Amino acid sequence: MLSIKDLTLHYGHSQILNGISMEAEIGEITCVMGTNGVGKTSLIKAISGRHMRSAGAVTLDGQPLGKLPAFGLAHKGIGYVAQGREVFPLLTVQENLETGFNCLPKGERRVPDEIFELFPVLKEMRTRRGGDLSGGQQQQLAIARALITRPKLLLLDEPTEGIQPNIIQHIGRVIEQLRSEGQMAIVLVEQYFEFAYELADKFVVLRRGEVIQSGARDSIAKSELLSLVSV
What we know:
six-stranded mixed sheet, four-stranded antiparallel sheet, Rossmann fold
């Protein structure tokens, strides 16, 4: 579904990513791992169009994406859940969800029941403002908002950061369910090693903006993977 070849990215004169190549398939979770500052979030931002890549090719479902901005890539089927959630604090839960309607044909602009089946707490809080929710509730809202767009590719950047354990478990179950439905590819950036290891089908390990290891979960020993992503 997603194919990246030789992606590079700069912030000003500083090169952050150097020749990244990776793939993510429908019905699989591809986990991008590495220590802090190695370029994981920068990679997600480059894929989502939040930061324009310097070079390299990205294709989605066999179609070259060129250098579209974020809103153009959202229309192409890329759903992005940013680190820090980025919910609209003054909008209600319902209104936050409806911001995803812009990616849908007019006749399909509704919040499907499946969203509230995945995240029951959001149904209870539809009229509450996003800024009044807890961190875990905001994370659920951010994921639900991305799902409203019916993405072909779902990008999740540190979904467990600052979240209480019971919500982490719930988010893990949601991600597993989305994988089992087989309708999207999922790319997960995650520092919580056990959470990532249990979910991932494939790993891509970064160091200093380069891929140093990649492969299916059963091709990399857990101890080896842990040593690669530890400080």
